[in-house]
Amino acid sequence: MIVLAVVIAAAAAVRSTWSPCGLSMLSTITPLTERGRGRRFAATATWFVVGAVAGGVSLGLGAAVLAGAVNAAGVSAAAALALAGIAAFITAASDLKVVGRQLPGHPRQVNEQWLDRYRAWVYGAGFGWQIGVGLATYIMTAAVYLVIVLAALTADPLVAVAIGGFFGLVRGLAILLTAGVSTPAQLRSFHRRFAVWGEPVRKAVIAIQLVVAVVASTVAWGWPGAVASLVVVAAMVAITVARRSPTEVPVEPLPTLST
Predict the structure, then answer these.
(1) Which residue numbers in the chain have pLDDT < 70?
(2) Distance (Å, rounded) from C-alpha 241 to C-alpha 237?
(3) DSSP secondary structure, 180-196, as one string
(4) Where are the alpha helices (DSSP H) in the chain?
(5) What is the DSSP secondary structure assignment for residue 249, as one 8-state letter?
(6) Domain containing 162: what range?
(7) Coil, strand, or helix at residue 117?
(8) Own/partner pairs, 198-205, CB within 8 angstroms, 24+ separation
(9) How far apart are CA 205 and CA 119, in angstroms?
(10) Residue 21: inside a domain, yes or no?
(11) pLDDT for 29-42, tens place per residue?
C-alpha cells in the first residue's frame, strides 16, 4: 500500500505542475524575474520548496486522521487493497471522463499581488504552501484525491503524513525547472517545450492510476481480481475512445495569475 501511495503521490504532483498556478510559478518565480525584483532566485525557490513541503504535510495530517480511523476500524490489508483498487478506478474514470463528468475541481489561483506587496520569503513560502497542499488551487488530476485515500488506507498516521510531505516536496521541486533560465528568450523556449509534455503526462498519470487499480485488485482478490480489473480497464478505454471526437484536442490552461 505504501509503495502504491508513493507512486500515486509522485504522479499526481508531477501532473499538477501543468495547472495554471504551476505554470504561473514557472513564469513568475525564475532567475530572470527574481533578478528584476532585486531578489535572489535561490532564496525564493528555497522558501517555495519549504512552503510546498509544509503544504504537503498539512495534506498528510488530514489523511493521518483518516488513517487513524482506518486503523481503529481494524480494516484488513486485503480489504484496504480492494478499496484502493476501487478508488483508483474511480479517479482514473474521472480523469478519462468516462461518464462525462469529473470529481470536483478547485478553479482558484494564488494572488499575484503578493509578488509586489510582500518579501520574497513570504510569497515564496506562501505560494509554496498553496501549491503543496494540493487542494488549495486548480486540481489537474483526480489522482490528488487518490493520494489522500491511499495514505489513509495505510492505517498509519505517520506514514500518511510522510506521503503528504513527499507529494508537497515533488510539487515544490518543480520550481527548479527554470533554474537555468536567464533571458526572456530562454523562458519562452522553456514554456514551449514544457507545454508539449502536458498531454503525454496527463495520459501517463491516468495509465499509472489504472496500473495501481489492477495491482491492488490482483493482490486483494487474486487472479479473479486481475481478470475483472483488466476487463474494467478495457471497457473504460473503449468508452473513452468512442466518446472522443476525432478532432478533439485537449487544451492546457494558460499560465496566468489572478486573485
Answers:
(1) 245-259
(2) 6
(3) T--SHHHHHHHHHHHHH
(4) 2-16, 20-28, 31-36, 41-73, 77-96, 114-117, 120-132, 143-153, 157-173, 184-196, 198-221, 223-243
(5) -
(6) 2-243
(7) helix
(8) 198/18, 198/250, 198/252, 199/250, 199/252, 201/14, 201/15, 201/18, 202/15, 202/18, 202/95, 202/140, 202/141, 202/250, 204/11, 205/11, 205/12, 205/14, 205/15, 205/95, 205/141, 205/143
(9) 36
(10) yes
(11) 999 999 988 999 99
Q: Is residue 11 part of a domain?
A: yes
Do residues 32 and 184 make contact, with C-beta atoms less than 8 angstroms apart?
Answer: yes
Closest to 167 measured CA to CA, from 128, 126, 191, 133: 133
What was the pLDDT predicted at 250? 52
Check residue 259 and give its pLDDT. 37
For residue 80, the model assigns a pLDDT of: 96
CA nearest 201: which of 3, 10, 53?
10
- At 251, list the grid cell: 487544451
How long a stretch of residues is the chain?
259
Around Cβ 230, how many Cβ atoms within 10 Å?
Answer: 15
pLDDT at 255: 52
For residue 206, the Cα-to-chain-centroid distance in whole angstroms is: 12
Task: Confirm whether 28 is domain-assigned.
Answer: yes
Cα distances (angstroms) measured from residue 96 to each of 93, 203, 237, 241, 254 = 5, 9, 8, 10, 21
Question: What's the total number of domains in the chain?
Answer: 1
256 inside domain: no
